[in-house]
Amino acid sequence: MKFLIIGAGGIGCYYGARLLDAGHEVTFIARGAHLEAMKQQGLSVEHEALHFKASVEALSMDELLNRHNCADYDLVMLALKSGATSDWLSECGHWLKQAETPVLSLQNGVDNEPLIAAVIGEERTLGGLAVRIGGHIIAPGHIEAKGPAQVVMGRWPQVKESVPALDSLSDTLNAAQIPTRITNNIRYELWKKLLINNGVNPLSALTGLDTRSLTADPALGKTVYAMMQETALAARADDVELTPSDVDEMFALISQFDAIKTSMLVDREKGRPLELDDISGAVIRRCRQLGESAPNTELVERLLQLDIRPVQWRPLTA
């Protein structure tokens, strides 16, 4: 198959390397020094179960639009930051409409799929999430990833019947050692992942702590759990019911998973825009819509907006 990966950062490059290793064709869309390094030196990916280094096809967005048609690809994987989705659709909407290629979103948040479906239609829109993976660019052209790196995907917004093309895609990903399962209710799965994203990403960015440090700390762990509860409340605005058992399951999952730097913490360290609007903002907006409050989420988001940073305390000297 021929795959196009839009937003070739840590997670996009890991999945792309897996697909290349399995014999598929992959085009990576990136920018800046990372793009230039991939063009000149190839792509290197280090993972506990994969050591990949090879030349790859890496292009800028302009180069893609000038050199390729959407119909050249069997699947578009969208791994952009959520805040870039709308601008990308505005730029590439006409290009996307010239084919029937499905688009699989592997982004944070619960608002990307409606934007995609509004441009290309629900029949071509696949909701998805990358589960239990941490992946970052540690140097241009060099990716470090960890975790089982599973994918959950499904037709947007919800289907009851089996979709043969989706079954075939799942088989392809699983054969490439990307553990993949199909869900008939992708909206529920996206909200379930947002439990973790809202629980740890903003607080991690605020404190500078990894996920394990957050959940193991008595006070911060309670805050993580409370922000997950606020996420479950917000989901009701989208007619998604997240139970206390869902909250407990996701809290246990992130508590037991390897200590990872969240993507929001990495973005803050590098001075990049944070995905606040698509993570904490999504929770706050929906709670307000329901006439409810999300005090923990609101506080952490506001501190990040004010750019409050951890103070490096030093012991007093005599």
From TrEMBL:
It catalyses: (R)-pantoate + NADP(+) = 2-dehydropantoate + NADPH + H(+). Gene3D superfamilies: N-(1-d-carboxylethyl)-l-norvaline Dehydrogenase, domain 2, NAD(P)-binding Rossmann-like Domain. Pathway: Cofactor biosynthesis; (R)-pantothenate biosynthesis; (R)-pantoate from 3-methyl-2-oxobutanoate: step 2/2. Residues 4-157 form the Ketopantoate reductase N-terminal domain. Its EC number is 1.1.1.169. The lineage of its organism: Bacteria, Pseudomonadati, Pseudomonadota, Gammaproteobacteria, Oceanospirillales. Pfam families: ApbA, ApbA_C. This is 2-dehydropantoate 2-reductase. Belongs to the ketopantoate reductase family.
